[in-house]
């Protein structure tokens, strides 16, 4: 993996050589070199190891995804801000099955750094809502769930959001439905 600055230097060097090829009337070489420089610019914004980890996660290969992410030694210097967000997002997805506290830390960091796509941000907030709900922080879970539903403009997470809302309603139980008295027995005594 090249450092992000090295990728830009390589792209600028290839682009400069492409201009030289245009000056020398080697138009075909110049065009190919410009396309090659665009690959390095693309890899500046989209880290190759994160892309490979996403491909592994699509196949439910958590070990393979972890192996690719472990190749990123120092994410703060090697990745741009949004890619650091995806780095933490992927780690959160992988550890969410085994360690909720660790997953919460990764998802919060991913949300604070930002993610490029609203769908991914909605998924991170949905996971955070599930973690908050499991830790009995219902107000935080409801807030995160409403934010996730606002971000899910295409309705890709609609079923999961609905299921989470139903689970939250079931967990509140019948005491919430009887007003300030708190229980059916207290309401009968008053009436």
UniProtKB/TrEMBL annotation:
Keyword Protease among UniProt keywords: no
Organism: Aestuariibaculum marinum
Protein name as catalogued: DUF2892 domain-containing protein
Organism classification: Bacteria, Pseudomonadati, Bacteroidota, Flavobacteriia, Flavobacteriales
Disordered as annotated region, ranges: 166-191
Keyword Transmembrane helix listed: yes
InterPro entries: TPR-like_helical_dom_sf (IPR011990)
Key words, A-Z: Membrane, Transmembrane, Transmembrane helix
Residue intervals passing through the bilayer: 5-23, 29-57
Gene3D superfamilies: Tetratricopeptide repeat domain
């Amino acid at each position: 993996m090249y450092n992000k600055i090295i990728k830009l230097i390589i792209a600028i060097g290839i682009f400069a050589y492409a201009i030289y090829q245009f000056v020398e009337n080697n138009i075909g070489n110049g065009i190919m070199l410009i396309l090659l420089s665009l690959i390095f610019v693309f890899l500046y914004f989209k880290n190759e190891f994160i892309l490979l980890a996403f491909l592994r996660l699509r196949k439910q290969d958590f070990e393979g995804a972890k192996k690719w992410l472990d190749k990123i030694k120092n994410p703060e210097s090697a990745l741009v801000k949004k890619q650091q967000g995806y780095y933490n997002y992927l780690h959160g997805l992988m550890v969410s099955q085994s360690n909720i506290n660790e997953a919460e830390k990764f998802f919060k960091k991913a949300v604070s750094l930002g993610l490029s796509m609203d769908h991914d941000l909605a998924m991170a907030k949905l996971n955070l809502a599930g973690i908050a709900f499991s830790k009995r922080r219902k107000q935080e879970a409801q807030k995160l769930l409403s934010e996730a539903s606002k971000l899910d403009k295409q309705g890709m997470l609609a079923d999961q959001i609905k299921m989470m809302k139903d689970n939250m309603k079931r967990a509140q139980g019948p005491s919430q439905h009887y007003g300030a008295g708190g229980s059916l027995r207290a309401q009968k005594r008053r009436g």
